[in-house]
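Hi Q.,

Before the meeting this afternoon, I wanted you to have the adenosine-5'-diphosphate prediction in hand. No need to reply - just skim if you have a minute. The sequence and ligand are here:
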Amino acid sequence: MSTTPNTPATPATAPTYPNQVTGMWLLAQALVKVGIKDMYGLVGIPVTDFSYLAQQAGIRFVGFRHEQQAGMAAQTHGFLTGTPGVLLTVSSLGFLNGLTATANATVNCYPMIQISGSSEREPIDLGQGNYEALDQLAIAKPLVKAAYRVNRAEDIPTAVVRAYRAAISGRPGGVYLDVTTPCLGQIIDRDVAESLLFEPVDLAPAMPPAPEAVTRAARLIAGAGRPALLIGKGAAYARVEDLLKQLVDKAGIPYLPMSMAKGVLPDDGPLSALACRSTIMQEADVVVLVGARLNWLLSRGHGKWSKTVKFVQLDIDPQEVDCNRPIAAPVVGDLRSSLEALLAELPKYKMSIDPAWIEKLKAETTAKNAAFATRLKNESTASPMNHWTALSAIKPILESNPDIILVNEGANTLDDTRDAVNMSLPRHRIDCATWAIMGMGMGSAIGAAVATGKQVVAVEGDSAFGFSGMDFSTICRFKLPVTVVILNNGGIYNGIGVNLSGDGDPAPTTLDVNARYDKLGQTWGADTYYVTTPQELSDALKASVASRRPTLIDVQLAADAGKESGHIGYLNPEALQHVIV
Ligand code: ADP
Ligand code: MG
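Predicted structure with the ligand bound:
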């Protein structure tokens, strides 16, 4: 594969040539110049020496066991900091492994740069079968926001700034930067190299909206009897919670957060309509999309949505407008500028909110919350435990420690945790997001801990954990304050799948309900727990929160806990449903 255990651990700037440096030295310095402080990756030929030089230059290098997870860390770093997370990969397979995360970052509008070494161009272009030969730039291009290749050391500072600007400007996304082996190893005079480095001016320029767009939107909002704000993770990313709070407080508009926007405004705030999603879709007359796309997660603007609802859309990307449903008032600009402009404009108009609309949403919220509390209470003593039993223990601990970042993936584990745990601070919930993928858990937990220094709890399904479990060792090696809670029902969806052939093999969805994941944690020196009751789970989670040590909690659930595809079973092709049901 891609790594070579015997790669010498000596930086390529040999002290015998003090007046000369390499391309890889210049790459490390160029990253420092744009403010990169952390890098995630997995090294080998041709980037090992570069990783040493980056560390020497003061960049924290977090080495992973799998490139995909290093990429998931970089994308989460990007989301949480608003600056690109950096992933370093080797050529061929390492590049491809990492590219899955860079593609995911692009789909989710997270800024990230994948820097990959690649083998020399000439034998690749002639198909001559060189070491790890792959036309990486061509492969990356359709999957990322922008892709560049540097062939000459002299171009490295420009290439880094270009990649940085592409990652964060406009709609953020994943950027691929291909650095060839000859370029990394190119010798260049130190004074020439130093003269090429520059500090870019205004890396994240404001992009204010057109005044007439703001006026149009303000008129529509002010005239609405049943308005709602739909807050997406673009708003979390843009750090506009202060402005959204003003909008809600002054204009009295109820809000509904998308999954990763939970906590931008408190889930349990007086105007939170978190429990009223269907009502808002069916009955609101004006919905303001704030950094949220009308994509599949919102039935692409159809399904339950009323035929007459009018949308205001605040987004950085003009191409997003009208892509699924006509937008009555697009406001294209960066969210901070757009919300500031809207807050200045709205007081010029008289608001028309129908008090009955607010009362209706409040009554529905009270009733739904009461029903949910009863459900949790009823399940809280189930033995063996199911997802709700476990969550009845997890919920109060996370809610009373709101500064813990919650990473969450799985099927039922994802859906039920999202429903159960209220968030009260922005950017404290990281999940599988737009593609609804599996396999981001350990990477995102590491990225969150490194980028913020905060404590992280990852609530994982057993299947979800399997994609990234080996990188629990990275949590231990870097002594990160991360607790991983595995809800083990022994399968994808659940552990009771039946092999229809009867040949004795496990069913496609069946995993290991008796696996002791806690023992895996012991290998790397983590604190570990195996729990079978909510009390044990509560005690273990409290202890891990207090210790801030790497912790792995294996939560034994019943094999029949959980259903096919969780809340999105309707997305399965019908034929499959006939077989399974
Ligand atoms: P969610 O899944 O939470 O609904 P999406 O990822 O679908 O969120 O949508 C996020 C939207 O936010 C994207 O359309 C993106 O263009 C937009 N966005 C991201 N950053 C900014 C910003 N700084 N200003 C305005 N819009 C932004
Ligand atoms: Mg499972």
